[in-house]
Amino acid sequence: MEGILLVDKPVDWTSFDVVNYVRRMVADIEGKKPRNVKVGHTGTLDPAATGLLVLCVGKYTKKVPQLIKQDKTYEVELILGKTSTTGDKKGVITDWGLETEDRIIPETQEVQEAIRSFVGEIEQTPPIYSAIKINGKRAYELARAGKPVVMQPRKVTIYSIENTEYDYPEIKFTAKVGSGTYIRSLAEDIGRELGVGAYMSDLRRTSVGDATLAQAYSVSDITKELLQKILATTE
Q1: Where in the chain is the domain with CATH 3.30.2350.10?
Q2: Which residues are catalytic?
Q3: CA torsion angle for 175, 181, 184, 190 (degrees, to 10)?
Q4: 30 exposed, middle or buried (CB, 10 Å; 0-12, 13-18, 19+)?
Q5: What does the alpha-carbon distance between residue 150 and residue 195 come to, in Å, rounded to a whole number?
Q6: Which of 52, 58, 93, 114 is the most exposed place for a label (fewest CB within 10 A)?
Q7: Whole-angstrom Cα distance, residue 72 to residue 209?
């Protein structure tokens, strides 16, 4: 079997969980062991995030290096006034360090200006809890082991940030970004720019290149019958 499968990844599933789920099903259809079936994804989604995950099956895994470079769109929610060790709600959350009565509450115009300042080509430092490899090890593996992790800033492109809604401490918006952009880092950078701290509280990917979430199947909808229908059968 070969082809592309669009999946709406549920919360608390890793991207590999979804890959493994589909791989086992394809293996069962083909009468193979899972390790002999090729399935890969074209861009990781964190366990706390949901939304579009593009899977390549069979010979289509050769397309992963090309597809992983596609632009992506996200629906983002972040919380001001607090920070997280991981940049999202899965980490240890702490106050920015201000007493409640002294808390800075940014005005709407300040928030809009801060957000606009990140549109375009920017330098961004990826989070230490990421899948980026450092000397052959994933950064998050080193961070979890308590080892020092130094992430180097790199250039990324944020094409647009639209549909902004602000009701302190919550900000919501839709961001279209280039490959390699970390929304967790964007959330933290916005909080830093406003001087109040922030972490990403929710994330949903709605498009990858021309593929959209509306075309995706939920995990519960994926059956052997569905895979046989949408994936080409190979000898």
Answers
A1: 3-69+210-230, 72-208
A2: 46
A3: -60
A4: middle
A5: 23
A6: 93
A7: 6
Query: Token pair of 162, please?
Result: 């639209």
Which class for 21: exposed (0-12), middle (13-18), buried (19 or more C-beta within 10 A)?
Answer: middle
CB-based contacts of 10: which residues, under 8 Å, 6+ apart? 50, 218, 219
Query: Where does the pLDDT of residue 153 fall: very low under 50, low under 70, confident under 90, or very high at 90 and above?
Result: confident
Query: 129-143 pLDDT, tens per residue?
Result: 767 777 677 766 766
Query: What is the per-residue pLDDT across 14-54, written as a single tens digit (0 to 9) for each?
Result: 999 999 999 999 999 999 999 999 999 998 898 889 999 99
3-69+210-230 placed in CATH 3.30.2350.10: yes
**CATH dotted code for 72-208:** 3.30.2350.10
Instruction: Name which residue leads in pLDDT, 122 or 145.
Output: 122
Q: What distance in Å separates the CA atoms of residue 80 and residue 199, rounded to the nearest whole number?
A: 7
Comparing CA positions, the residue from 82, 80, 84 lying closest to residue 46 is 84
